[in-house]
Amino acid sequence: MEWIRESVDSIKSIQLRPTLSQAVNLGLILTSALIIWKGLICITGSESPVVVVLSESMEPGFQRGDILFLHMSKDPLRAGEIIVFNVDGHDIPIVHRVIKVHERQDTGEVYILTKGDNNDDDDRVLYAQGQRWLQRHHVMGRAVGFLPYVGWMTIIMTEKPIIKYIIIGALGLLVITSKD
What GO annotations for molecular function exist for this entry (predicted)? Predict the structure, then answer.
């Protein structure tokens, strides 16, 4: 009777190993992605080294769905540069061109005015209430490169969350059912 119990326990432990192995593999994949992301943050100096263009405001230069690569340096911002910035009270970063830069000589503070290439007016209507200029702390980074249309998957998953859940479920199912 004892040998039957030991055999059943042995069979259970053998069946548990592949599941444990799959869980460890999934953990390694997620950890690797996090390490790569944090490494990019350190290298680029930007809190978000990659962003997706979400609107048509920068056409024809950038299309909706383009992925931008950002870099943040101590160099002064210049009119004509494309930056990504956050506005107080808004969660979504904005990709627009710098059209004016003012620097106060007494304090060294920099004031920035932006505009979308496809927009008629500057961005003061997008800034927080009463805010007329952006400051350096609003800027997430400068655009240093892009991949056209690669970010469409992000837009689709944001606008249609059910697709995101289907993809995550399918990937989870794939990990669980795959055999090494």
Answer: serine-type endopeptidase activity; signal peptidase activity
Q: Catalytic amino acids?
A: 57, 96, 123
For residue 6, give its domain range. Answer: 1-44
Tell me the pLDDT tens digit for each residue of 41-93: 888 888 889 999 999 999 999 999 999 999 998 888 899 999 999 998 888 89
CA dist 149 to 44, 68, 82, Å? Answer: 22, 10, 18
pLDDT in tens, 137-162: 899 999 999 999 999 988 988 888 89
* Residue whose structure tokens are 């326990």: 9
**How long, in residues, is the chain?**
180
Domain count, the chain: 3
What is this structure's pTM? Answer: 0.74
**Same structural domain for residues 62 and 131?**
yes
Q: In terms of domains, do 117 and 163 share one?
A: no
